[in-house]
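Rather than argue in generalities, we have chosen a single entry, letters for residues, whole numbers for local backbone shapes, without further comment.
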Amino acid sequence: MDHEIIRPLPRGNPAAAVPVCPGYRLALGMLFSSLLIARAGASDPPVRLAAHAGEGGANVRLLLGETVLLKSPAEGLWSIAMDWQDDWPTGWVHGSPASYEQVGDWTILRGRIRTPAGDWEISDAYRPFKDTIQGIRRFEWKGREAARRCTLSVRFLAPGEGDNVVLPGILYHGNPSGARSGRVPVYTGMPGEEAFYEEHRFPMPYASFEWASADGWRGAALHSLPCPTPFGHRPDQWWSLGCRALGGATELALLSGPCASNGRRSVIKERQRGFEPYSDAWLEVPPGGIVEKTFRLQVYPVAAEGRGFGTATRACLDLFEPYGLHGLPEFRDIITSKYRFSQTRWHAARTGGGFCKYPNADQRPFFVIGWCGQAAAPGYALQVLGDKLGAANADEQVVRSLNTVAQARFYDGGFHTWYDFKKDEWSNIEPLSQGQGMHNMANAIRVARGRGLDTAPWEAFLRHACDVHADRILAAGWTPPSTSEGFFIAPLCQGRELFGEKRYLAAARKAGEVLAQRHLAMREPYWGGTLDASCEDKEGAYAALQGFLALYEATHEPRYLEWAGHALDVVLTYVVVWDMDLPAGRLRDHAFTTRGWTAVSVQNMHIDAYGVLMTPEVYRLGGLLGRPDLQELALVMFRSCGQLIDPYGSQGEQPQHTNYVQGGDMTDPARFRGGYHETWTVFWITAHFLNAAAQLQEMGVPIWK
């Protein structure tokens, strides 16, 4: 029988929802069900799931109109490995459903896989769910003895090849920029290549793939409801999620533990420098043991190359709805704690003063502009927040710190960002830090002009910096080494507004157009936004997001808003949308909630509070795009990242949500997950909260209620 259900359209689609409309017909020779779930747009064909019981062909297919975009393997809907050799599952057996049942809007397929050791009874249940097809797969072992060294799976095939895969926080179209380091996951899409990672490594737990077809780009995604595996041989063993390249197809799959990357099986990304063994991730299922796995399937048209993952990202937000604020720290408590801690980093120097990057100013006497130091950020934030904070000395610190920044020594291509206040020396060439520092200085000047502070030295510095970088960007042949130079776009737009210099905006436009040309198709995904890794990262995506949004607000040209939306989709893939189960450890001690934190990069795979800095842009884009969900998410990001603040207002950089460690105790990999490296407290962890809070307050967000 066929059974068709029209579902409401995805959030934000301008077309109207249509009513439920069932219909029935007899299928010849087999039992058959069809679920019609959505239209992707007014002119797009419907998305339909077709399922049948019986041997031969794919038992489950997802179609866009009449085109199959995702299907179960020809060897059978269900695949189980009954042994383990050479660090990988082996002894695979396959099966197809023997019966079909329709219960409400559920399609249920049942069958059995026979093995010499006993039988598996298996069922799949499918229904439309939030513009995806939800599946629940149930495995029940009927053997008299335990099924040892076995591996369960969920597998679906997309009819395309290549590296256009997104595994959020892990893999972006092959990670071409990070591949040179040898420290990141890579994937080329060559036949036989595998990329599988623990589910708790995914900020957004999905695997998406896009490919070119005769009539345009198409996409598919496998979403998972993450969970540990029952009967795992390893302690704290979880399902793994990822993909495998086949001749003529790409498999999106879940496995009950095995991981693979970079041509190696049974490895995980365990440390900053690379991969370590992760062996024997099989199951030992006792007689009568039951394992269930919930997943969601999605297929869709893709408007242009590099845009497919955005559909999966928006669906993932809709599936997890990570918007609840209950139990999260309050804005007021976070901001006052961070201000209190900022005062422990204040240092009066001969040239004025500033906020130290490190806690031990006697041994490491540095004020650092941008990136980890953010010495200029409080100069803006304290002007906005000072009254609410009761900061009697705020203006003194503002003036002295920004006067110090304004003395930065210039070189031919910009200015130095590190100041040793003991030696009175400037050093280091960090373009991305220069852009961030200019942005903070521009905000400080804008606010200070209305407060009667003497901005002359600050304006002289910012003009000089804008002149240098505008000339550099407008020069023929300018090519940024990475997306990091997107951090110059916003301050150049601000320079145009503050000083009326048109060429600043011209330089910002050129930079934006170069970045769009390089990155929108995701052949070169956004990258290079940090100084301790050269790879795809959220900071690089944020540089583009901030820049494209600044161009839109300066010009109101729709293309810039579209570009900002693309960069935002990439930024969001690094935002954790689900609350991870955590083992005993420092994070569990605090009932730590992962939702709202952000993964760092495809190399440094801990989570951190950097996403706080992005919240003003996420909130503003939510308003511009008519998406209140983004505004809700921005508030969650800020408040959730206020966890782990100690009584002094201090907070470490590296919570360890997955099997990865970058600092602290590295002796026992089995104890990495759930740990917390709290002694690395560079100043950005304070400054970003104050900086973002000031922007949100200026936008009218009620952060003090």
About this structure: Residues 129 and 296 are 8 Å apart (CA to CA).
